[in-house]
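quick one, 157 residues, struct below
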Amino acid sequence: MAEDLSIIEGTKEEQYTALIPQIEGLLTGETDLVANMANVTAALKEQFGWLWVGFYVVKEDELVLGPFQGPVACTRIKKGRGVCGTSWQQAKTLIVPDVEKFPGHIACSSLSKSEIVVPVIRNNEVVAVFDVDSNEYDLFDETDKKNLEKIVALINF
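---
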């Protein structure tokens, strides 16, 4: 597939519906994990304009920063710390409408107001988390959860 992305207007669901096949095209035939994570983050950042989009990969006893788009980020997160570490520990997607109200939130960027973190689960084990931050409060919802879970499932970890 050409590396051009068609950015569309419309409802959030319409945007995901148009974007997911494009992401599938970017991933088809590419076996490099870093390249695939990088393209997924770039595609989502381009489509939605979120503050920060990226992966943290499980390495031994912590999450280590992977491919991302946005401001510089925390490089290592312990299990159970912040939204990412809690999503890893609980192996479930977390939607946080106001990060300041999340117990133990790690403020990698003071601009972050809301967040969604999707665990990447393979063989019943969390191997990474996909993290998205917005500079708006209460931006993420079940539409994001459903579609971001579909997108991370497309990546061969």
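The radius of gyration is 15 Å.
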